[in-house]
Amino acid sequence: MLQIVLLAGKFILLIILYLFIYRVVRSTTRELRMSGADAGRQTAFRPLDSRGMEVGRLHPPGTPAAAGSVTWSLVVVKSPTLRPGEAFSFPSGSSAVLGRAPEMDIYLDDTFVSSKHAVIEATAGLLQIEDLHSTNGTLVNGAEISGTHELRIGDRVEIGDTILQVEVR
Q: Tens digits of per-residue pLDDT, 17-66?
């Protein structure tokens, strides 16, 4: 009887080991596929200084030099790594990938953030976020999103322990 129990235990251990290896390989191939799909993506976000002006910009938003263009901004409300009040600017036609990998456009050093967590794209009059099949998901106003989600002014985006608020500047 004891031999049968030990033999069954060996089989159960092998099954668990194979399931673990399968999950690791599946996760790795998914990350590789996503990195290939994002390789041609244009990224042109501009960080803002403490006064709300784009770094390197000579004219503040709303002046004639900036008239006619809508610039979306993500302002840090709370983050373990980013300063509260820090803002990321998204002029029309730009996008940025957020994640824990050092080569991301917006680097979030947080254990609850995937290496490639989400992508944000700005078009004429529209800002969208897409969760890139992250482990812990992306929340907009407290609700988890799947696929592409349209953001509005005042929306709060939660990625890991980081909270960002959508504004237009």
A: 999 999 998 888 776 765 554 444 444 455 555 555 554 443 344 443 34
Residues in the chain: 169
**What is the biggest distance separating any 2 CA atoms in the chain, rounded to whole angstroms?**
86
Q: Which two tokens stand for residue 31?
A: 């990350």
In angstroms, the CA 166 to CA 151 distance is 7
Where are the alpha helices (H) located in the chain, listed in sequence order? 2-37
Classify the phi-psi angles of 110: left when phi > 0, otherwise alpha if psi is within -120 to 50, otherwise beta. beta
**H, E, C per residue of 52-73:** CCECCCCCCCCCHHHCCCCEEE
User: Model pTM?
Assistant: 0.60
Residue type, 25: V
Q: Which residue has the tokens 């033999």?
A: 7
Alpha-carbon distances, residue 129 vs 4, 55, 62 (angstroms)? 54, 23, 25
| DSSP structure class, residue 83 | P
d(CA 155, CA 142): 10
Using CA atoms, how far apart are residues 96 and 107, in angstroms rounded to an integer? 10
Give, in order, the Cα–Cα distances in Å from 50 to each of 45, 53, 82, 83, 88. Answer: 16, 7, 13, 10, 11
